[in-house]
Design a protein that fits this description.
By secondary structure, the chain is mainly alpha-helical. It contains seven helices and no strands. The chain starts with 10 loop residues before the first helix and ends in a 10-residue tail after the last helix. 31% of the residues are buried.
């Protein structure tokens, strides 16, 4: 044996590498799906929210409610539900807050969907890499045990290569998608905070001539 080549890996090692490939493809698919979904849902889109809230505080309730319905984005959809409820029943703020909160939770649930797949990949990839490490070391010591006389370092090399390559790939996958998961979770958390702030802003606003809080 003059070198350690990928084709010299055992069937078990190839199975581990195949499993790592599958989990990385799954994580990449979820990442792309979430990016497309966030774009379609309008996550982080706050352009027209300030204008709608300004119309509302000036007492232009109907105009604000219609503007919110015509807008696009998570925040405007939640705001539209709240303003529509307040426009229909100005004195029933508890109902409006409840409806807005329910809609906000629905939107957040949609944003959080499939995030567990990324979390599972982050946890599973290092474990698969560790499994490859154990397999490689078992193979290496098994070859040494099967020889007589002085151990040939070449017999040890393939097992060590398996151990190192699977560990490195597993850790690389976990690190990359750990930061991807953090970034996506951060966007969801910022949207949650913005929705809570927006709902409280409307709830704490007195309209001119209405006298309700």
């Amino acid at each position: 044996m003059t070198g350690v080549l990928p084709h010299e890996l055992s069937v078990l090692a190839w199975l581990v590498l195949g499993a790592l490939g599958l989990v990385s493809v799954a994580a990449l698919t979820v990442t792309l799906f979430k990016l497309i979904q966030f774009g379609r849902l309008g996550v982080g889109r706050a352009g027209a929210v300030r204008g709608v809230l300004d119309d509302w505080t000036r007492g232009e309730r109907r105009q604000a409610a219609l503007a919110a319905k015509r807008g696009d984005g998570v925040r405007l959809r939640v705001l539209a539900v709240m303003l529509d409820a307040l426009d229909a029943r100005p004195d029933d703020r508890a109902r409006a807050q409840s409806l807005a909160t329910q809609r906000a939770l629905e939107e957040l649930a949609r944003m959080s969907g499939s995030m567990r797949v990324l979390e599972a990949v982050v946890q599973a990839a290092p474990m698969l890499g560790l499994l490859g490490t154990v397999i490689g070391m078992i193979e290496a010591f098994g070859r040494i045990a099967a020889t007589t006389g002085a151990a040939d370092p070449a017999l040890l090399a393939s097992g060590i290569w398996t151990a190192l390559i699977t560990t490195a790939i597993g850790l690389a996958i976990a690190i990359v998608f750990y930061f991807v998961s953090l970034w996506l979770d951060g966007r969801i958390a910022r949207e949650r905070a913005a929705l809570e702030s927006m709902i409280m802003t409307v709830m704490n606003t007195d309209l001119p001539g209405q006298g309700y809080r």
